[in-house]
Amino acid sequence: MGTPEFALPTLEALHYSSHSILSVITQPDRPKGRGQKLLVSPIKQVALDLNIPILQPETVNAPEFIDSLSSNRPDTIIVVAFGQILSEAFLKIPKQFCINLHSSLLPKYRGAAPIHRSILNGDTRTGVTTMIMDKGMDTGDILLMKETPIHKTDNAQTLHDTLSEMGGTLVLETLKRLEENTLLPTPQDHGHATYAPKLKKEEGLVKWEQSATTLWNQVRGLTPWPGTYTLLNKK
């Protein structure tokens, strides 16, 4: 399950592995632009190229969709930046459990924008985490983690690309360790949890009284979207 470009390396890694993909679940095509042309998600396009069956429910939590997917009895469901909250009924579908790939070192930066927030806050290290999904937001038991440095020249796009590639590798390693029964899920320390809320366009406004380091982190953390801007004569 996935929608944006971040999920592509994981899909490709699974496709070229020994694992069998029953189907790809992604968001429905959405109209975009002045012409309101239906836009295909990056994951759907790659799934089409790889001849993988595609499912695009309006909501994955609909009882009829859950019943249909349950009839296939998947061993595991891999979720990477899908874009919908999954119900407890959905999480019970696989024989094993649903595994989520998250782009931070949990419990730090739970939520929608961990990559951007780590740069905005001036962090020097980050990583990816696989976890067992539960009804909370990024609160499930941790399976595996992998760290990487955040370079001073990194921006949100370059770090996104690094973590997405790492994620594909980590998902395969997670599945391998689970098959070998050598992986013990570890509960998160909820007392040390931090959150990474969704970005707002107004966060790009430059406040010149801030330090040069803070401004540089703002530029990096908000590239390519929403970008940074300033006002001249309040315009």
Textual characterization of the structure:
There is one protein chain. By secondary structure, this protein is an alpha/beta fold. It has one domain: Formyl transferase, N-terminal domain (Rossmann fold, 3-Layer(aba) Sandwich), CATH 3.40.50. Helices cover about 30% and strands about 15% of the residues. It has seven helices and eight strands. A four-stranded mixed sheet has the order 5-6-7-8, with helices on one face. It has a two-stranded parallel ribbon with strand order 1-4. Strand 2 and strand 3 (about 35-40) form a beta hairpin. Helix 1 runs parallel beside helix 6 and helix 5 runs antiparallel to helix 7 (about 210-220). It is globular and about 60 Å long. The N and C termini lie far apart (about 45 Å). The mean pLDDT is about 95.
What's the short version?
By secondary structure, the protein is α/β, with parallel strands linked by helices. It has 7 helices and 8 strands, in the order αβββαβαβαβαββαα. A hairpin with a 4-residue loop joins β2 (30-32) and β3.
SSE topology:
Blueprint: H1 8-15, E1 24-25, E2 30-32, E3 37-39, H2 42-49, E4 54-55, H3 63-70, E5 77-79, H4 88-91, E6 98-102, H5 114-120, E7 125-132, E8 142-149, H6 156-180, H7 212-221
Parallel strand pairs: 1-4, 5-6
Antiparallel strand pairs: 2-3, 6-7, 7-8
Helix pairs in contact: 1-6, 5-7
Domain Formyl transferase N-terminal: 2-173
Keywords: Protein biosynthesis, Transferase
Family: Belongs to the Fmt family.
Please give the count of helices. 7
The fourth-level CATH homologous superfamily is Formyl transferase, N-terminal domain
Helix content: 25-40%
Shape, per Cα inertia axes: globular
